[in-house]
Amino acid sequence: MLKRTSPLVTSVVFASIFAAMLSACNPSANTNQADSNAKNANNTPSQNDPACTNINQTFKAVTENSQIEDIRKLDALLETCLPTATPDDKHAWLLTYQSAWEKFLTVNPPYLTMQGEAVSEQYDLYNKALARLANGEALSEKDGSVVGDRGRYLASLLGKSEVQLIDDGEGEMRFAYDFAPSVQLFAKYLPEDEAAFITQRAKEAKEGPAWTLGVLMIEPKALMDRMLFWENFLKQYPSSYFADDVKLILQEERNMVFVNRGCIDFERRNLNPELAEVITELAKRQDSILGDDARTLLAFMRLSDEARMQAYPVATTHEDDTPLDIDAITSYQLDKALGSQSHWMKEESSRICFGYLVCINSQITEE
Predict the structure, then answer these.
(1) Predicted local confidence at residue 340, as pLDDT
(2) Which residues contact 30 (CB under 8 A, 6 or more apart)?
(3) Do residues 76 and 57 make contact, with C-beta atoms less than 8 angstroms apart?
(4) For 178-229, how does the pLDDT look when each residue is reduced to its tens digit (9 = 90+)?
(5) 285-291, long-range: CB < 8 A, 24+ apart
(6) What is the DSSP string of 115-167?
(7) Which of 249, 268, 269, 260 is nearest to 209 (CA)?
(8) Could you tell me which of 136, 179, 164, 288 has the C-alpha nearest to residue 224?
(9) DSSP symbol at 19
(10) What is the Cα–Cα distance from 364 to 95, expressed in whole angstroms?
(11) How is 201-240 classified by DSSP, letter by letter?
(12) What average pLDDT score do residues 33-47 get?
């Protein structure tokens, strides 16, 4: 699909994000305690600083034509204003800072102004040029003309700033930014649970997306570690500001493991060997929804077709009475067995987490 090359692919609603070791799955249970650096002092200079009260204008000043120095000005301003900011301001600034980076990284490559077959050809050349950049090669003169002026400028920042290149799957490249400095900037002024959330999100983003186009991009064991971190997060911080987003992230990750058709062979009743190891390990866990799911899946795989239909009756034809194939029938049965949307998400969410440090509402458009 040809589109404006943006740093974030908002058409992908999987959420993103991802690997955490099991040793990282035990954040403190004190949900209300903010870091000592975040405690506000009354009447401190930053509270009355005009630059802080007008910070949103500074955010909006960052555009696709800005220089990295404009981002650095934002960083310095946030260091001044965050210590005495209200919780609502901190949450808003996290989103706005993320949006500023998104605008900064936006590229309008020359192929967008072309027509006909040239668009597809130049689009392919654009992604190949960025792929070579990601592999450490310098831009050739031809590559420079393909990526355009903004692309050349962003390329000059690689290795010298947070700017990086990401492969979103099937060779589609985009400019992105390393979340770690953002975490370093905000985390010390956030409550413990919120700091844990963005720290984990940055760690997962650094290790790469868990999946692309429905295909697992990391080892099942690494995805299991992420899921266990988020399940434990909800136990430790059930009232966290980010709890609903964690539920969405966990739901999407859980579905990739338990309902991923690329890893489950229903006809032969077996699992991808690496996935089977993960499912078996999860099935040993008590007091865990993921453990319950693992036991349900293993039991489901042992059932005959007849036993499955008896335990989980579903329609066997389309609305026009044409028959469903066995894979479709089995998929509906597994959804019924697992309750695909019943554990954490009670209804469909319009939130997008994939590719972002903090999730956004897909229905929000910038004025």
Answers:
(1) 57
(2) 192
(3) no
(4) 999 999 999 999 999 999 999 999 999 888 777 776 677 788 888 899 999 9
(5) 288/231, 289/231, 289/343, 289/344, 290/227, 290/228, 290/231, 290/254
(6) -THHHHHHHHHHHHHHHHHHTTPPPPHHHHHHHHHHHHHHHHTTTTSSEEEEE
(7) 249
(8) 288
(9) -
(10) 12
(11) HHHHHHH--SEETTEE-S-HHHHHHHHHHHHHHHHH-TT-
(12) 43
Place of tokens 């720290």: 199
DSSP codes joined into one string, 301-328? HHS-HHHHHHHS----B-TTSPBPPHHH
pLDDT reading at 359 higher than 80: yes
Q: Is 5 helix (H, G, I), strand (E, B) or coil?
A: strand
Give the CA radius of gyration of the chain. Answer: 23
Residue 7, pLDDT score = 43
What percent of the chain has a predicted confidence (pLDDT) above 70?
80
Q: Which amino acid appears at position 217 of this protein? A: M
Please state which of the ranges 132-146, 153-167, 225-239, 269-283 shows the lowest mean pLDDT. 269-283
Long-range pairs of 54-63 with CB within 8 A, sequence gap ≥ 24: 55/81, 55/93, 56/96, 59/93, 59/96, 59/97, 59/99, 59/100, 62/100, 62/103, 62/104, 63/103, 63/104
Full-model pTM: 0.80
**Amino acid making up residue 207:** E
CB 163: neighbour CB atoms within 10 A?
Answer: 22
Tokens of 161: 């700033």
DSSP for 239-252, please give it: T-TTHHHHHHHHHH
Task: Tell me how long the chain is.
Answer: 367
